[in-house]
Design brief:
The chain has 2 domains: 74 residues, no CATH class; 161 residues, no CATH class. Helix content is 42%, strand content 20%. The chain has 11 helices and 15 strands. Strands 5, 7, 10, 11, 12 and 13 form a 6-stranded mixed β-sheet that branches.
């Protein structure tokens, strides 16, 4: 298959943006978790130093003294350093965004990027949601420096696979964490729940939350993500257990606005095998089956030729042998 390969300048720019984004994320989360400090005067008139956590809880560090004043000065210096670093890195990301668009690196649909960026702000949810479907191709592009044909990446939806093996405890007493639907509303207020597992905005962009089908859906209660009113309920789908068990894959790609977005997805070999399996399902939409097979072949080619991955490696041992049965159908030269 023919791909558009990035030239030297494009590759250099992509790598630079990825590095700046990684540094920005580190500084951003450091700034969020550093907490606050303030002096508080007691009823007796004595001042005490208090640390304020993200959850708004406060802890006394002791009465005002040389020691606690040193702690306060160190804290203020740390905040100033982080704020300065964030300001500089934000300016670099802004500069890079213009270059990224000029270099035709801006690929990820903006609605997808906005959702993934917001989810990144809530690791308790983000760590258990995996991008599957067409949007995963942008992660493979960013990792290899090749671009898939436009007709293969065009999409108006985002599929997020929830790892149902771990029950989420989102609403903890020490931290009020929103559910997925509330997070979507914070990204775009026009999102409405059109099905139990689906939200759609006014522009028609769809976000589906899906999960592996349980062995017995009739006797086991449907897993819930959170207790928020109107929360999305992951839809059970056959075959997704293979993707949950597959190795993870993640990369920072560039969205249509020129800014980076991290995409956490599945190993490209697992993606290709799953798409191949979908392409043979008789209940699959014929139009989708054709695209499934095209994506399977393209991603398999990328996995072998650019990522040097082996479809017979032991890290895919959790996948059923039946998935590998049709491997020859999607193997390219050298696979």
């Amino acid at each position: 298959m023919q791909f558009d390969e990035l030239d030297g300048n494009q590759r250099k720019q992509l790598i630079n943006t990825q590095q700046v984004h990684e540094a920005w994320l580190m500084a951003h989360f450091d700034r969020r978790h550093v907490g606050g400090m303030h002096w508080k005067t007691s009823a007796t008139g004595r001042q005490y130093l208090y640390r304020t956590a993200k959850s708004a809880s406060q802890k006394s560090l002791g009465p005002r003294s040389d020691k606690t004043e040193d702690i306060m000065r160190g804290h203020q210096q740390r905040l100033a350093e982080l704020d300065d670093r964030l300001q500089n890195l934000t300016a670099k990301l802004e500069q890079n965004s213009l270059i990224n668009k000029a270099y035709r690196l801006a690929r990820v649909p903006l609605p997808t990027a906005k959702v993934l960026r917001r989810l990144k702000e809530t690791p308790r949810i983000d760590n258990r949601l995996i991008v599957v479907g067409t949007n995963a191709l942008y992660a493979y592009e960013a990792a290899t420096g090749v671009q898939f044909p436009g007709e293969m990446t065009a999409t108006e939806d985002l599929d997020l696979l929830w790892d149902a093996r771990k029950q989420l405890a989102l609403l903890l007493p020490e931290e009020n964490v929103q559910g997925v639907f509330a997070l979507l509303k914070s990204v775009d207020r026009s999102y409405e729940r059109t099905m139990k597992y689906r939200a759609q905005n006014r522009d028609g962009f769809i976000v589906d939350i899906i999960r592996p089908e349980l062995t017995d859906e009739t006797t086991r209660p449907s897993p819930r993500i959170s207790d928020d009113d109107g929360e999305l309920e992951p839809s059970p789908i056959e075959g997704l257990q293979w993707l949950v068990n597959a190795p993870r894959f993640g990369e920072t790609a560039i969205a249509e606005d020129g800014y980076p977005v991290h995409i956490a997805t599945v190993d490209p070999r697992a993606f290709a095998l799953h798409k191949l399996w979908l392409s043979h399902r008789p209940d699959r939409n014929p139009l989708k089956r054709h695209r499934d097979l095209a994506q399977a072949k393209a991603v398999a080619d990328v996995a072998v030729r650019w990522l040097n991955l082996d479809f017979h490696h032991k890290d895919l041992s959790a996948l059923p042998a039946s998935l590998l049965a049709g491997l020859a159908q999607i193997q390219g030269k050298g696979a």
